[in-house]
Amino acid sequence: MDVFEAIKGRRSVREFESTPVKEKDLEKILDAARWAPSAGHCQPLELVVVKDQAQKERLARAALGQTFIAEAPVAIVVCANVARTSRRYGRRGEELYCIQDTAAATQNIHLAAYALGYATCWVGAFDEDAVAGVIKAPAGVRPVAIIPLGRPAEKPSPPQRMPLNKIEDEF
Ligand SMILES: Cc1cc2nc3c(=O)[nH]c(=O)nc-3n(C[C@H](O)[C@H](O)[C@H](O)COP(=O)(O)O)c2cc1C
């Protein structure tokens, strides 16, 4: 699939079929995350794949009741290993770079999943401590996004974007 087709065609999907995600496809999707850029190539990315139903339900509760997380066959928790970046870049690494790095990896996951016929949603609204508890994240590993992944059971229309001339600024 053409990269522009994936960028424009991808949608946030919040209804999923129960059809399992093929292991080969899951591996491709996780591998796409690994190829995202990272500041100083520090690679703070850590991914936790959750398939267990009870664990997905705990994630959904930690995400303020976003039950569609538990309906998807897989939930990927994207984490930032903060020390990997702050060791080199101090506060800027801790507060900015490791978040940007993991955001780039998150977008790669969305696009790769879409190109393989799957649907995802970027979930950022959650109680961070509660999610860390569900995945037993060690200290210094910060959950930054939850991505439910599965075959789509809805086809949302694309929400309007700000026009280009509104975001292309001359300050
Ligand atoms: C950082 C971030 C956090 C988000 N958190 C949530 C969330 O908690 N729940 C949700 O349903 N969608 C969430 N979204 C998805 C947005 O609502 C969605 O991307 C936006 O409405 C545009 O729709 P589209 O992704 O289909 O283009 C989040 C997106 C981003 C980038």
List keywords for this structure.
171 residues; 7 helices; alpha+beta; NADH Oxidase; four-stranded antiparallel β-sheet; binds flavin mononucleotide
Q: Strand pairing plus helix content: what structural class? A: alpha+beta
In CATH's first tier, which class applies?
Answer: Alpha Beta
The radius of gyration over CA amounts to 16 Å
Helix and strand succession?
HHEHHEHEHEH
Description:
- With 171 residues, the chain is α+β, with helices and mostly antiparallel strands.
- It has a single domain, classed as NADH Oxidase, CATH 3.40.109.10.
- It is 46% helix and 15% strand.
- It has helices at residues 3-9, 23-34, 53-62, 68-71, 82-115, 128-135, 164-167, and strands at residues 45-50, 74-81, 119-120, 141-150.
- Helix 1 packs across helix 5, helix 2 crosses helix 5 (82-115) and helix 3 (53-62) runs antiparallel to helix 6.
- The longest helix has 34 residues, at 82-115.
- Flavin mononucleotide (FMN) binds next to loops.
Q: Brief description of this entry?
A:
The chain is 46% helix and 15% strand.
What's the topology here?
Elements: H1 3-9, H2 23-34, E1 45-50, H3 53-62, H4 68-71, E2 74-81, H5 82-115, E3 119-120, H6 128-135, E4 141-150, H7 164-167
Antiparallel strand pairs: 1-2, 2-4, 3-4
Helix pairs in contact: 1-5, 2-5, 3-6
The chain binds flavin mononucleotide.
Residues 11-12, 14, 66, 121-125, 159 line the site of flavin mononucleotide (FMN).
